[in-house]
Design goal:
Radius of gyration: 12 Å
Number of helices: 3
Strand order of the largest sheet: 4-3-5
Strand content: 15-25%
Bound molecules: zinc ion
Number of domains: 1
Largest sheet: 3 strands, antiparallel
Number of strands: 5
Structural class: alpha+beta
CATH architecture: 2-Layer Sandwich
CATH class: Alpha Beta
Mean pLDDT: 93
Helix content: 25-40%
Low-confidence stretches: none
Length: about 90
């Protein structure tokens, strides 16, 4: 059985394997991870990724209190870019 999730930006519903997943783990560490922690799902297209990093959308989706620090956001964006480039090949 497939688990359906929706994108935190556009709300599109797809099986969770089709999304990128960002997860917040105990202690507040945020990683791109297919499982564990509290997850936020994102379409792999560029628009949803850039929207997710605007304002506090990602912080809200992950239930982070306040803002996610800039270094973490940059690291996540870099990692997402790498993943997207791999998937395009
Ligand atoms: Zn989306």
């Amino acid at each position: 059985m497939e688990s359906i999730r929706s994108c935190i930006v556009c709300g599109k519903k797809l099986p969770k394997e089709r999304f990128l997943r960002i997860a917040k783990f105990k202690g507040g560490r945020i990683e791109i991870s297919p499982r564990g922690g509290r997850g936020a799902y994102l379409c792999s297209d560029g628009e949803c990724i850039s929207e997710a990093f605007k304002g506090e959308r990602l912080a809200k989706a992950l239930r982070v209190k306040g803002k996610i620090d800039a270094d973490t956001l940059q690291r996540l964006r870099d990692e997402l870019e790498v993943i997207r480039k791999c998937e395009e090949k």
